[in-house]
Design a protein that fits this description.
The protein is of the alpha/beta class and 283 residues long. It is 45% helix and 12% strand.
């Protein structure tokens, strides 16, 4: 008997996904891109800027939740590429739901950011705003994406089916400087839900992570538990970070920033781990 054939559906190739994205960008002659300086929004911005008929405006929201080094990298990229770039001050800590740091903080934060960017884009004559959400983002807890959908902000990468692996590959082929850049998240993600956000707390976290990066640990998270710093680093760096001389330097450096206790998470860096655990406990 002939073998039964199931209902199979062809998986779109990387090439077809690229064509879908370029087709979506084609004809957009006045496009604003919410640009964080990361690989997702960076690839989107570079491609839109390269469109022959396109006029593109990069928009970045500056706030205490956004690391200063990320802002400077975003500025430098746009200057080097000749891309029009507006940096807007976003008073996100004035939003009560953001400051309270509850489970829906990201939703309210994104909503406020996008409203600011859309208003500026419209005033400059750019009717369409896009952001860098990709096809993999639906696998994690991303309430900010819901805010983007409700706000009418498009996600061309996700619509084309492009996930992080292909985005990095494409960015590498285009020699974009951030193609291998570690994933970054806003500084508020370092504070457990329910712990109020203050400028002082966010500056403390940022300084601690900058200190670790300068020591040669660029993909770390400093989880903030009051006066306790819990460091998450990729498992491959655990042994090096725990070496006696390095450990002593880290303890000294973070204590100088205001932490009384410094701990190393033996599980290693896991994006979103803390808030996912808290979310489970609250159900």
């Amino acid at each position: 008997m002939p073998e039964k054939k199931g209902n199979t559906q062809a998986v779109p190739s990387f090439a077809s996904k690229r064509r879908a994205l370029l087709a979506a960008l084609a004809g957009q002659d006045r496009l604003a891109v919410a640009f964080s300086g990361g690989v997702d929004s960076g690839l989107l911005l570079a491609l839109a800027h390269g469109m022959p008929q396109g006029r593109v405006l990069a928009l970045t929201a500056a706030s205490p939740l956004f690391p200063a080094r990320e802002l400077e990298a975003a500025r430098a990229f746009c200057v080097n590429r000749g891309i029009a770039h507006s940096v807007l001050t976003a008073p996100l800590l004035e939003v009560p739901e953001v400051r309270a740091n509850g489970p829906h903080r990201c939703y309210h934060c994104k909503k406020a950011q996008l409203a600011l960017l859309m208003e500026h884009a419209a005033a400059r004559g750019f009717p369409t705003l896009v952001h860098g959400a990709n096809a993999d983002d639906g696998l994690d807890y991303r309430p900010g994406n819901q805010a983007a959908i409700e706000s009418g902000v498009h996600a061309p990468l996700a619509l084309a089916g492009l996930g992080k692996r292909h985005i990095r590959l494409w960015a590498k082929r285009l020699a974009l400087p951030f193609h291998a850049k570690p994933a970054a998240a806003c500084l508020a993600t370092r504070v457990p839900w329910g712990g109020p956000l203050t400028p002082e707390t966010l500056r403390m976290i940022e300084a601690a992570e900058n200190f670790l990066e300068d020591l040669g640990f660029p993909a770390c998270r400093v989880r903030h538990h009051g006066t306790v710093a819990r460091i998450e680093t990729p498992p491959s760096a655990l042994r090096r970070m725990a070496a006696p001389k390095t450990r002593a330097r880290i303890v000294e450096g973070l204590r100088a920033l205001g932490y009384s206790h410094v701990s190393l998470d033996l599980e290693g860096y896991a994006p979103g781990k803390m808030n996912r655990d808290i979310n489970k406990e609250s159900r």
